[in-house]
């Protein structure tokens, strides 16, 4: 099948006007000018789309689909720790409601152009996911437990669930450094060595910064109440010393990283996952994107969950792109779209397969309207609120 559109945004090369993409066996077999491709492949079926631009599907590099709309807050809580306490107090809903939430979340992501998602999940809830969702879904089974025996139990259970599941792309992942006992983290290392990557919340909040750097504050009280102890002075340095950084962690948030932390992150070639909506919700200090980009660190984007987004967000990846555009006017729309696609693929070590429109890559493609033809095509992507259609692995997906 030959797809034709006004503009293609391959990401790894300049936009192609009046372009075509040849799809074969779920992959991109050729890409270039539509006239050339028509001559080269005269017998292929053509699907032509007017006023349309095509680009690779978005990679949502951080999400918790199990946190549904009922957890969203009208007002941000006074502190991160208060938010955690409120979330725990709300309790776990019935499984059928959770299943519905997850399904709605998947739909919302697909509608906003996401084709790949890295989803942190409670291990028990893995069975609520089915193979049926077309999303390229990476399931990060979260290990939790500040107190040692609770953490050990969580790890044991997650290993068992992972082994028994028929779903692919399941990974074990520590929730964070403050919420998992350090001895449990150390035993998790043997699992992480066998995985392509893992994902960890790190230095997300002011409270977490106080917890590690000053060993005090509400988060330190919260963790002590649960039988945990106050962690190392520099969590990034600790992860490096223990050997975690060799196993490709996605550093999720990293809102309070020090210049020294950035040097270590750069040295290990790690990726930072920024979640603009969640960042705004908590009112964190401005995200030091300039310093991070100057350090040549790969930055990808995530939605995080509805529990830390304003209640009108609806888990739309376009909302995150618009926030990026508003918060960082000096960053070009092209760079923002690269963060949303190729950088996400790089973060999860799949840049050889997804994240750009290149020959040999999987045909994960999204289509959207050219809202303003006078404007830059990357800016046009951000102007949209929904996609026209999506294709995953060469198949059109119903959204
Ligand atoms: Zn998260």
Please name the CATH topology of the largest domain. TIM Barrel
CATH class of the largest domain: Alpha Beta
Question: What is the average of the pLDDT values?
Answer: 92
Strand and helix order: EEEHEEHHEEHEHEHHHEHEHHEHHHEHEE
**Secondary structure category:** alpha/beta
Number of domain modules: 2
The percent of residues in helical segments reads 25-40%
For CATH, the homologous superfamily of the largest domain is named as Metal-dependent hydrolases
Question: How many beta-strand elements?
Answer: 15
Query: What is the molecular shape?
Result: globular
| Spatial strand sequence of the major β-sheet | 3-2-1-4-13-14-15
Q: Which small molecules are bound?
A: zinc ion
The first-to-last residue Cα distance is 21 Å
Please compute the radius of gyration using only Cα atoms: 21 Å
Architecture of the largest domain, according to CATH? Alpha-Beta Barrel
Q: Strand share of the residues?
A: 15-25%
Characterise this structure.
With about 400 residues, the protein is an alpha/beta fold. It folds into two domains: about 1-55 and about 355-395, Urease, subunit C, domain 1 (Roll); about 60-345, Metal-dependent hydrolases (TIM Barrel, Alpha-Beta Barrel). About 35% of the residues lie in helices and about 25% in strands. The chain has helices at about 35-40, 80-90, 95-110, 150-165, 180-190, 205-215, 220-225, 235-240, 260-265, 275-280, 290-295, 315-325, 335-340, 340-345, 375-385; strands at about 1-10, 15-25, 25-35, 45-55, 60-65, 115-120, 135-145, 170-175, 200, 250-255, 270-275, 300, 365-370, 390, 395. The strands form three sheets. Strands 3-2-1-4-13-14-15 form a seven-stranded mixed β-sheet. The chain has a four-stranded parallel β-sheet with strand order 5-6-7-8. Strands 9-10-11-12 form a four-stranded parallel β-sheet. α4 (about 150-165) packs parallel to α5 (about 180-190). The chain starts with a strand and ends with a strand. It binds zinc ion.
């Amino acid at each position: 099948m030959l797809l034709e559109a006004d503009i293609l945004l391959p990401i790894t090369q300049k936009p192609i006007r009046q372009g075509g993409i040849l799809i074969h066996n779920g992959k991109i077999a050729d890409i270039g000018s539509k006239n050339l491709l028509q001559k080269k492949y005269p017998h292929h079926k053509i699907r032509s789309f007017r006023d349309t631009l095509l680009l690779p599907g978005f990679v949502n590099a951080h999400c918790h689909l199990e946190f549904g709309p009922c957890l969203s807050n009208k007002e941000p809580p006074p502190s991160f720790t208060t938010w955690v306490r409120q979330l725990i107090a709300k309790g776990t809903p019935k499984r059928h409601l959770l299943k519905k939430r997850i399904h709605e979340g998947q739909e919302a992501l697909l509608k906003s152009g996401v084709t790949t998602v890295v989803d942190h999940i409670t291990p028990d809830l893995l069975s609520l996911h089915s193979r049926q969702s077309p999303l390229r879904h990476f399931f990060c089974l979260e290990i939790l437990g500040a107190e040692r025996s609770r953490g050990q139990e969580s790890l044991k259970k997650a290993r068992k669930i992972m082994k028994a599941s028929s779903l692919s792309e399941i990974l074990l992942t520590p929730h964070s450094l403050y919420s998992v006992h350090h001895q449990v983290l150390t035993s998790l290392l043997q699992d992480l060595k066998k995985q392509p990557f893992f994902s960890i919340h790190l230095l997300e909040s002011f409270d977490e910064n106080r917890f590690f750097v000053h060993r005090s504050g509400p988060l330190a009280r919260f963790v002590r109440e649960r039988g945990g102890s106050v962690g190392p002075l520099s969590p990034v340095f600790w992860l490096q010393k223990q050997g975690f950084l060799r196993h490709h962690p996605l550093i999720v948030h990293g809102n309070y990283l020090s210049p020294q932390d950035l040097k270590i992150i750069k040295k290990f070639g790690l990726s930072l996952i920024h979640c603009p909506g969640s960042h705004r919700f908590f009112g964190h200090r401005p995200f030091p994107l300039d310093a991070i980009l100057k350090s040549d660190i790969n930055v990808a984007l995530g939605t995080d969950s509805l529990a830390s987004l304003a209640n009108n967000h609806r888990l739309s990846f376009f909302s995150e792109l618009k926030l990026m555009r508003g918060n960082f006017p000096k960053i070009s729309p092209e760079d923002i779209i690269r963060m949303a696609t190729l950088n996400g693929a790089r973060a999860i070590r799949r840049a050889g397969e997804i994240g750009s429109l290149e020959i040999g890559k999987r045909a994960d493609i999204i289509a959207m309207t050219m809202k303003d033809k006078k404007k830059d095509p990357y800016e046009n992507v951000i102007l949209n609120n929904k996609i026209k259609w999506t294709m995953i692995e060469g198949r059109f997906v119903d959204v």
